[in-house]
Amino acid sequence: MSVTLAIETSNPSAAGPGQPGVAVRAGSTIVVEPVGAGREDDLMPAIERLFARVGIGPREIALIAVSIGPGGFTALRVSITVAKALAYSCGAACIAVPTAAALAAGARHAGLSGRIGVLLACKGETSFASVFEDGSQEACESRLIDASQVEQLKVGTIIADQFLPEAMRAACARLGIALQPPRFDAAEVLRLGESLHAARGATPADELAPIYAREPEAVTKWRKLHPEAGA
User: Fold this and answer.
1) Rounded CA gap, 49 and 1, in Å?
2) CA angle, corner 72, sides to 133 and 26, nearest 5?
3) Tell me, what DSSP letter sits at residue 140?
4) Are 109 and 192 in contact (CB under 8 A)?
5) Cα dist. 152→117, 137, 141, 157 in Å?
6) Within 10 A of 14 (CB to CB), how many other CB atoms are there?
7) Are 182 and 160 in contact (CB under 8 A)?
8) 109 — phi, psi (to 5°)?
9) Among residues of the chain, what percentage have pLDDT more than 70?
10) pLDDT tens-digit profile of 111-143?
11) 128 has which bridge partners?
């Protein structure tokens, strides 16, 4: 039996609706296993629990869909490393699923239409915005923005978590843009991953990489300590 495995542990602080964790499709059924507190440590045990529930082994995995961010620095590194390790050891194909695309696809399945903005990786006064045209699985634009640039997105709905800067919330209220909480869902990553794989083929395992909204803080600090290294 060929199985699709999905990993959605991109945002450790995820709250609200949704089922982050890991999921498998075996036949027509999707089964989700949550990943517990300290998600990086529980990711492999969660996959083992999921396999035991469904009654499959790692060698039956044909495709691994992994949510690649924006999200937490360590969470993305761990989930992508696990996806690569399983792909190499089991001979499975991989597909990279941008987290914002999975959130937008989930909102579409819940009945939302029109042009959607997804704002993630909020820090200070900025957020990483991805915009999706109605019916599109891939973002037409992705960039860091502040409150003064919200209007430029030309969206009717923005999906954003509890960390959205207050200035951006105020801009949405002024512009009449509806705010909706994100639904981080392993099953949605699985469905979108299968669709993207069918449309464009696999992502080579050695090319799987996280989407970071901005340079990691550790890298910024290293550059400050070692200016002689240059850019």
Assistant:
1) 18
2) 70
3) S
4) no
5) 11, 21, 11, 13
6) 23
7) yes
8) -65, -25
9) 96
10) 999 999 999 999 999 999 999 999 899 999 999
11) 120, 144
9: tokens are 């542990």
**DSSP reduced 3-state for 52:** helix
Q: Of 58, 60, 5, whose CA–CA distance to 30 is shortest?
A: 5
**Is-contact 7 189, C-beta < 8 A?**
yes
Distance of CA 188 to the CA centre of its chain: 10
The region that residue 215 occupies, defined by phi over 0 for left and psi between -120 and 50 for alpha, beta otherwise, is beta
At 123, give phi and psi (nearest 5°).
Answer: -155, 130
If residue 21 lies in a helix (H) or strand (E), which one and from where to where? Answer: strand 21-26
How far from chain centre, in Å, is Cα 152? 24
Which residue matches tokens 């003064």?
Answer: 148
- Tell me how many helices (H) and strands (E) the chain has: 6, 10
Say if residues 36 and 20 touch (Cβ distance below 8 Å): no
Residues 6+ apart with CB under 8 A from 44: 82
Q: What does the DSSP 8-state code read for residue 114? A: S
Distance CA 201, CA 104 (A): 21
Residues 199, 186: Cα–Cα separation, whole Å: 20
Average pLDDT estimate for 87-93: 96
**pTM for the whole thing?**
0.92
3-state secondary structure of 197: helix
Stretch among 15-24, 103-112, 130-139 having the lowest mean pLDDT: 15-24
Exposure string of 194-231, with b = 16+ CB inside 10 Å and e = fewer, is bebbeeeebbebeebebbbbeeeeeeeeeeeeeeeeee
